[in-house]
Amino acid sequence: MSEFFTQAVLIAAVASGIRLAVPLLLASLGETYGQRSGVLNLGVDGIMLLGAFGGYYTVLKTDNVWLGLAMGIGVGVILGLVSAVISVTLKAEQGISGIGIYLFGLGMSDLLFQKLVGTPLPVGSFPKLDIPGLSDIPILGEMLFRHSIIVYVAFGLVPISMYIINRTTFGMNIRAVGENPEAADSLGVSVVRIRYLTVTIGGMMAGIAGAALAIDLGIFQQNLTNAQGFIAIALVYFGAWRPAGVMAGSLLYGFVNSVVLQFKTLGIIPRSWSDIAAMAPAIITILALVLVARRFRQPAALTKPFTRGT
Amino acid sequence: MKKRHVTWLALVLALMMVLVACGDSTDGTTAGTDAPDETTAPDETTAPDETTAPDDTAPSTDTTAASAEPFRIAIVAPSASNDLAFTQSIVDAVNVIKSEMGNVEVAVTDGTFIVEDAAAAIRGYASEGYDLVIAHGSQYGGSLQEIAPDFPDVSFAWGTAADTFGLDNVYSYEAASDEGGYVMGVMAAALSETGTIGIVGPIEVGDAKLYVDGFEAGAKAQDPGANVNINYTGSFSDVALASEAAQAHAAAGADVMSGTAQMVVGAVGVADEVGALWFGTQANQTSLAPSIVVASQVYHWEVILREIIANLNSGTMGGEIYTINLANGGEVIEFNPGYSLPDEVRQLADAAIAGIIDGSVSTGQ
């Protein structure tokens, strides 16, 4: 156990937890917008996978990570719009239609990868950014301020999302539409327009999350996300539909994962236990979900399609 | 209200069609290789040859007749055909067989990490009358045990495993991956300056466990004081977790790393980034990081496939267990020409290979 409390290992564990949290944070922040407006999009993982492939392939061809990120955004926006058409305009059952998007993303990303790339080839990652001044703080600087740019972007989006959802007219409309769409509609708020926007934002963020994952790993493989999109959806519930809560959940999941990895590496968890230990992040997240999130009420109109006059 | 249901139903159907289309095309390699063969396969085109052949060269009649009807091999495997790991090893081997024998028809269904999908594919190939159906995944054993008795005229090969279920149309095959692992371990301990070596594994079973245990034994044999950290991430597919496991190894001081299964592509990238050396297994992983991959243990399943096919031709449909190892050439240590391995380390490796082949070195398995 004492091996864990060395400076190098502690720093690595925290930095690793932050990296692991980033794709989850991006995807779950996006999903928060949709769910606050009453739309559950279960297709997050599929959008992430296509965003990941799009981002990876673009970097492979152009050697430019920013174009890769832009491709992730583009793929995410398109699939977000498709999700919105399905769940808002066509009023499909949200618990099922998202699974379709997921399976589409899973199959299509692998198909494109096999046809266009084949054997995995490594690509360049996002540049690292040492925040001037802050990165020189002993220990803390190394843990928190020596990451790739996408890490700061993801955490920067938390206060921005808090501001948008809680302090702007757009955010108020999102909440109104998610709580009582009939009332919002009667006050002249277009439920359809708001939900299209939020679901598209969610798709865009999922696309970014996927591209960030693939580009930061520098590789693509079949089912690269390994169901992170579904964990992201769970984290929205965990975070009680609030950006700060979602961030806390993502970090918890990332940290539990990284600590388990460090424990295994150092032999603190015996090898025979490693399969059980691998479940720890899921178990801890579920426990926390049961204990914490129950105290918060979900948006009243979540998963309910809106039809005027019913 | 009704109208909405109709729209919804249409949508589900449309999505399903897209998915089905994807499913088919994912097996595109299958369909792609299948289709042309099927069109050339018809006996009408080959029949004239058969009738003319006997008149020309009497002795070669047998081979011509045998090759007129293609030998049909199907592969069902869990990951992608070009995963630079487990699945690629069998696809490459069958392609070697194809180039050797000539008239071989190969069909591949890859990416069947869902066992039920694999079972459907295995049954499908068997009912299409393939000569040899290869179920390339330990996890397919249960399905194969149910399917094989229904097709007594089809021979099945299952790996990596050492059990034919007592069925006389099932062969099984495995890799003594501990042998290559041991050789890698010897080199790793000799090359490590920090004395700490990191290994990323999936789940502690089968082929992966053998490789990791052999690697550890080799490293300890070379340097009894070597610190070999082993991290089984618990997943064959989680690339991000494998990548972070490699980061954890680096933090613990590892300057040489290795790993097994298809998710290690993430770990190789990290090794490259932190300047650690890498040893690959299952396929040649040099292309993932040309400057740090020292060597890869490569599987050549064609060694045992040749024996299986010879058996089939003489009428034995199964019942035997095969192992590839360093001695029979089924496992080969491929060195990366781009990495300048010190001569003395190369000699240690060669000595370990020779010792394992002549039995003077034990991998501890």
Stretches of chain B where pLDDT is under 50 for at least 5 consecutive residues are 17-67
Indicate the CATH architecture of the largest domain in chain B: 3-Layer(aba) Sandwich
For the residues shown, what is the average pLDDT of chain B? 84
CATH fold node name of the largest domain in chain B = Rossmann fold
SS content category of chain B: alpha/beta
The total tally of domains of chain B equals 2
CATH level 1 name of the largest domain in chain B: Alpha Beta
Distance between the termini of chain B: 67 Å
H/E topology pattern of chain A: HHHHEHEHHHHHHHH
Provide tags for this entry.
heterodimer, A: mainly alpha, two-stranded antiparallel sheet, B: 365 residues, alpha/beta, Rossmann fold, 2 domains, six-stranded mixed β-sheet, 13 helices
Kindly summarize this structure in a few lines.
Chain A is mainly alpha-helical. Chain A has helices at residues 7-36, 44-62, 65-89, 94-116, 140-144, 149-167, 169-179, 181-186, 191-217, 228-238, 243-265, 274-277, 280-292; strands spanning 128-130, 146-148. Chain A is globular, with a radius of gyration of 20 Å.
